[in-house]
Amino acid sequence: MDKDTIAAIATSLGKGGIGVIRVAGPKSIDVCKKITGIVPSDHKATLLKFKTSTNEILDEGITIFFKGPHSFTGDDVVEFQCHGGPVIMDMLLKEILQITDVRQAGPGEFTQRAFLNGKIDLTQAEAIIDLINASSEKAALSASRSLQGVFSQKINTVNDKLIKLRTYVEATIDFPDESIDFINDGQVESEIENIIQEMNSLLNEAKQGVILQEGIKIVIAGRPNAGKSSLLNALCGKDLAIVTNIEGTTRDAIHENIDIDGLPLHIVDTAGLRTHTSDIVEQIGINRAWNEIEAADRILFVYDVSRTDDYEQVKLFTDIQERIGNNVDFSIICNKIDLTDNYSLPDEMNTYPQIPFCSKNLKGMEELRKHLKECAGYTNSTEGLFSARRRHLESLEKALSHLQKGQELINCMSAFELCAEELRNAQNNLNDILGRFTADDLLGKIFSTFCVGK
Ligand SMILES: Nc1nc2c(ncn2[C@@H]2O[C@H](COP(=O)(O)OP(=O)(O)OP(=O)(O)O)[C@@H](O)[C@H]2O)c(=O)[nH]1
Ligand SMILES: [Mg+2]
After folding, report:
1. CATH 3.30.1360.120 fits 5-119, yes or no
2. Is there an atom of ligand 1 within 6 Å of 84 CB?
3. Where does (6S)-5-formyl-5,6,7,8-tetrahydrofolate bind (predicted)?
4. With a 6 A CB cut-off, is 272 part of the ligand 1 pocket?
5. Using an 8 Å Cβ cutoff, are 68 and 1 in contact?
6. Chain-wide mean pLDDT for the chain?
7. Cis? peptide before 26, omega within 30° of 0
C-alpha cells in the first residue's frame, strides 16, 4: 500500500448544497482526529464539527471513515461532507493539507490507487472517467457496465480459454511421448477457431463501446450561402447559428454536441469557403474552417443544388479533397431541394454518399440521421454494451492477429512451438487491456490442470 496520504476536493468546482473532501492513506485517522476531534466508527456517517488547528469551527457536516482495505482505494479513507461553497471547501482542504505527511492528490490519483491496490482493474479504472465524461445516457450506461466489470469479465473468459489452449499446446511440446495424438485429434484447431470467433465478436462490441464514448467529429463545409448554418440548426433543433442570405454570414467556427439515438456527435459549422476575399475577418474565419476540416472524422459538404452552374462549388470540393487526402470521409448534402428537383451531381462528387436535403422543411433529416449512424458503424442495441477505448481495440486487434497467425501455423505446418509463441503473445495483449503486466504463471497451470498420469 502507498505510504503517502492524499487529499482533494472530490466534488466539482462551483457552488452546491454539499461538497466532499476525500482523504486516503495511512494518515487518514490522524486527519479525522485533528479536524473533528474523534474517529467515527468504520462505514458509519457521523455529524461532526470541522475545526481548525486553533479550534475555530469552520463548518459542520457528515464524516465517514472507511477502514482499509474496505474502501474505494483500498487504504484508510475518510470523507468530509461540508457545505458546497468553493471558499469553505478550500479553507477545509487547506487545514487538512497543513497536517504533516498529507499532500494534495494528483489527477486521478484515488482511482490509480484503487487500481494499484487491486480493487479494480485498468478497464474499470478507465470506465470511471468515461462515466464522468459520458455525453449521452447510452454512453453513461455502457461506462457503468464496464465499471461493474462486464468488459473485464469478457476478456477474462477469452483469457481462460486461451490459457487452457496454451496448456494443451505446451503439453504437446513438453510431453511428446504421451499417448494422446495431439496432432491428429483436431482439438487445437477447433479451439483456436472458437477463440478467434469469440474475439471477433468481442472486438465488434468493443468498437461500439469506443464510438459511444468518443463520438464522431462532423464538420459542415461548403461555399458561402450553401446552407451550412441552416443545416447545423436543423441537426441541433435550435437557432444556434445566424442564418441570412448574405454571403459570409458565419465567421467563426460554431461547435455543438448532440446525440442521435445515443451516438455522440460533435458538430462544427464553418465559415463559407472561397478562394478570394479582401475581408480580413472573413479570411481568418476561412483559415479556421480549414483547421476544422483537417481535424474532422467526416465532412458534410453542403452542395447548393439551386446553383449547379456555379463551378466554384466543385472547385472547393476538389480543393478539400486535395488538402486532406483520403484521411476523412465525405457525405454530400444536396441542399435546397425545395428550389429544384432537377439537378445532377458533378462527377467529382458522384462516388460519395449523397443525401437530398431541405433545411426549410427538414426533408431528408431522417435519412441523414440514419446515414450518420451507419457511417459511425453504430447500432441502436444496448444489449451487452460496455464502454471501451482505442487502446483496448488495438490490443484486441493485436491479440486477434497473433491468434490468426497461430491458427495458420497449426493448420499449415503443425508447428506447435511457433503456435505456442503466438498464443503467448495474444495472452499478453489481453493482459495489457486489464493492466496485468505479464505474470507468466503458465507452468504452474500446466501441472495443476493437465494430468499426465505419472
Ligand atoms: N429555399 C431554401 N433556402 C435555404 C435552404 N437552406 C438554407 N437556405 C437559405 O440560404 C441562405 C443561406 O443560408 P445559411 O445557412 O446562412 O448559409 P451558410 O452556408 O451558412 O452561409 P455562410 O455562413 O455565409 O457561409 C439563407 O437565406 C437560408 O434561408 C433550403 O434548404 N432551401
Ligand atoms: Mg453560415
Report:
1. yes
2. no
3. 22, 79, 119, 454
4. yes
5. yes
6. 88
7. no
Our mutation pick for probing the ligand 1 site, out of 293, 316, 359, counting the most ligand atoms within 8 A of Cβ, is 359
What's the 229 CA to ligand 2 centre distance in angstroms? Answer: 4
> Cα(376) to centroid of ligand 2, in Å?
25
Distances (CA, A) of 79 to 68, 72, 100, 128, 361: 13, 11, 18, 19, 55
Residue predicted with more confidence, 171 or 351: 351
pLDDT at residue 184, rounded to an integer:
63
C-alpha cell at 42: 468504520
Beta bridge partners of 79: 22, 64
Pocket test for ligand 1, best of 232, 235, 243 (most atoms within 8 A of CB): 243
Report the side by side order of strands in the sheet with 45-51.
45-51, 57-66, 77-84, 16-24, 5-9, 102-104
Write down how long the chain is: 454
Integer angstrom CA distances of residue 333 from 222, 336, 390: 10, 9, 30
The tens digit of pLDDT for each residue in 154-172 reads 999 999 999 999 988 888 7
Query: Which residue's C-alpha comes closest to atom 16 of ligand 1?
Result: 243
**Span from the CA of 264 to the centroid of ligand 1 (angstroms):** 25
CATH tag for 150-210+389-449 (out of 1.20.120.430, 2.40.10.10, 1.25.40.10, 3.40.1550.10): 1.20.120.430
Name 256's bridge partners: 267
Q: What is the pLDDT at residue 170?
A: 83
Q: Whose CA is nearest to atom 7 of ligand 1?
A: 227
Assign domain 215-376 to its CATH superfamily.
P-loop containing nucleotide triphosphate hydrolases (3.40.50.300)
Ligand having the closest approach to the CA of 274: 1
354-356 vs 329-335, strand pairing mode: parallel
